[in-house]
Amino acid sequence: xxxxxxxxxxxxxxxxxxxxxxxxxxxxxxxxxxxxxxxxxxxxxxxxxxxxxxxxxxxxxxxxxxxxxxxxxxxxxxxxxxxxxxxxxxxxxxxxxxxxxxxxxxxxxxxxxxxxxxxxxxxxxxxxxxxxxxxxxxxxxxxxxxxxxxxxxxxxxxxxxxxxxxxxxxxxxxxxxxxxxxxxxxxxxxxxxxxxxxxxxxxxxxxxxxxxxxxxxxxxxxxxxxxxxxxxxxxxxxxxx
Length: 241
Fold this sequence. Notes:
This protein has one domain: Spore Coat Polysaccharide Biosynthesis Protein SpsA, Chain A, CATH 3.90.550.10. The chain is 34% helix and 20% strand. It has helices at residues 7-20, 59-69, 89-95, 125-132, 162-167, 180-190, 215-240, and strands at 2-3, 27-31, 48-52, 74-78, 82-83, 101-109, 119-120, 152-153, 157-161, 194-205. The strands form three sheets. A five-stranded mixed β-sheet has the order 4-9-6-10-5. The chain has a three-stranded parallel β-sheet with strand order 1-2-3, with helices on one face. Strands 7-8 form a two-stranded antiparallel sheet.
């Protein structure tokens, strides 16, 4: 978990984990900027390690650093603006028992219970143009009772087997923010592994959508999008060369 001045959100999520987690876990919280917190490392029944960055790091770099400090057989990327009403890990871990699955994620809903577009097809220039012209995001896969196998799932909640995350080298740290999750799922699928969304598990996303309001976030978004498309073009060229 990485906090950007989101101590209150992190505290709520930590309380959720303390209330609903039914298996041993460790939590690594990275403070990407200096902030005061309404809790301490010893306030919870599970081990909580807090890392403090001297300077702001990117999404991938933060989570890769946390992975190197972690010890569990599974590694979860989890945003502080997620809330949990029940233990999500048994059902997600069950999906990862299939060696063909590289990452598992829950169904993400907003605070009103509406399904968010957290499971998507890989972006294309046409789909990006539609968003730029104001097309409203909507779920790209039909969600029912059965697991869904999308192209990629959003990085707000991703559960990996340790050896899978390690074999891929983690997130590509050349993305400072945005598209790290898309890129990692593309590499998973290139390695012959599946991405799965388990609709029997729900998590609530209290989104802030900074990229919609702040020019710096929009610039990071655009830069990451271009990097992804260029990387995919090079990969496609290598396959056909």
